[in-house]
Amino acid sequence: MRSDPPNGGEPLLPLGGEPADATDPALETVRPGQPTPGRLGRVGPGADEGLADPGEPGRRQRHELWMRRALEVAVTGPAAGGPSTDPADGADLAVEDVPVGAVVYGPDGTELAFGRNERELTGDPTAHAEVLALRRAAQRLGRWRLDDCTLVVTLEPCTMCAGALALARISTVVFGAWEPKTGAVGSLWDVLRDRRVNHRPEVYGGVLENETAAVLRAFFR
Ligand SMILES: [Zn+2]
Fold first, then answer.
1. Residue 149 counted as an annotated binding residue
2. Which of the following is catalytic: 10, 64, 118, 130?
3. Where is the composition biased (Low complexity) (predicted)?
4. How far is the CA of 93 from the centre of ligand 1 (A)?
5. 130 is catalytic
6. pTM of this structure
7. Is 63 annotated as a binding-site member?
8. Is domain 60-76+96-220 annotated with CATH 3.40.140.10?
9. Ligand 1 center to residue 97 CA distance, Å?
10. pLDDT truncated to tens, each residue of the chain (221 aa)?
């Protein structure tokens, strides 16, 4: 687990960003020592220049606030209550499940849905926090497109979840701890910033990285 924030939670690829050359030295500031999958989008310092609305007041604070909510979901489980309609709510906590939490926010910042990793609880290999949160958010909105929505998750998404996020047309992804073993948003792969893909969400990694990593470390200790 990384201990230092790779980029301080700054955007890796602002929405609509113009892709930079894969040999851009700025890539090194995002995942030092990590192989890059080739044709990455623009990343690193200055990547959001003129693009991402860097002057928006309180964005970092909002992301951290949302991440704390995702952490709450991760450690307290589905019984915590909220907009979820999942029948598992109120069930015994899935203590065996890796504590990963995800929350989807609407364009106005309203919490639409949340999900906690329930793979062990449900015996479902696809029951990752992100997938559950996406499904519930889509159900609540009555559509599969989650344009202008933000998904916040405590751990870097895997390939499945990154694919699901892209398919949901989610606008922004905010994640906490980096996952060097399975991460698909900059670690092992970079599904969301692959410029061969038409839809590339705005990505913020390493938000509250220490806190989110600590929860996972405590679980695996
Ligand atoms: Zn996943």
1. no
2. 130
3. 1-19
4. 19
5. yes
6. 0.71
7. no
8. yes
9. 13
10. 444 444 445 555 444 444 444 444 333 334 333 333 333 344 444 344 333 443 466 899 999 999 999 999 999 855 444 444 454 544 455 458 999 999 999 999 999 999 999 999 999 999 999 999 999 999 999 999 999 999 999 999 999 999 999 999 999 999 999 999 999 999 999 999 888 888 899 999 999 999 999 999 999 98
Ranges of each domain in the chain? 60-76+96-220
Total residue length of the chain? 221
User: What is the distance in A from the centroid of ligand 1 to the CA of 61?
Assistant: 25
